[in-house]
Amino acid sequence: MSKFSSLEQSLKHFFGYDSFRPGQRQIVQAALGQQDLLIIMPTGGGKSLCFQLPALLQPGLAIVVSPLIALMQDQVEALLDNGIGATFLNSTLSNAEMRSRERDILNGQIKLLYLAPERLLAERFLPFLGMIQQQIGISAFAIDEAHCVSEWGHDFRPEYRQMRLLRELYPDIPLMALTATATERVRQDIIQQLELRQPYIHIASFNRPNLYYEVRPKTQQSYAELFGLISQTSGAVIVYCLSRSQVEELALRLQGDGIKALPYHAGLEDSERATNQTRFIRDDIQVIVATIAFGMGINKPDVRFVIHYNLPRNLEAYYQESGRAGRDGEPARCSLFFSYSDLKKVEWMLDQKENEKERRIAYQQLRQVIDYAEGTDCRRTIQLGYFGESFPGNCDCCDNCRHPQPTEDWTIEAMKFLSCVARSQERFGMVHIIDILRGSRNKKVLQNGHDKLSTYGIGKDKTVEEWKMLARSLLHQGFLNQTTDGYSILKLNQLSWEVMRRKSSVQIAVPKKQAIASHKKTAAAGEMLFQRLRVLRKKLADAHGVPPYTIFSDPSLMQMAQQQPQTLAEFARLDGVNRHKAKQYGLSFLSEIKAYCQQQSSVSLSQGGNNSRLYLTNTLSLTLELYQQGHSPEEIAEKRNLKSTTIMGHLAELIEMQQPRRCRQDSLPQTSTTHITSNSTGGDFFPQNYLRTSPRML
Question: What is the pTM of this model?
Answer without folding.
Answer: 0.65
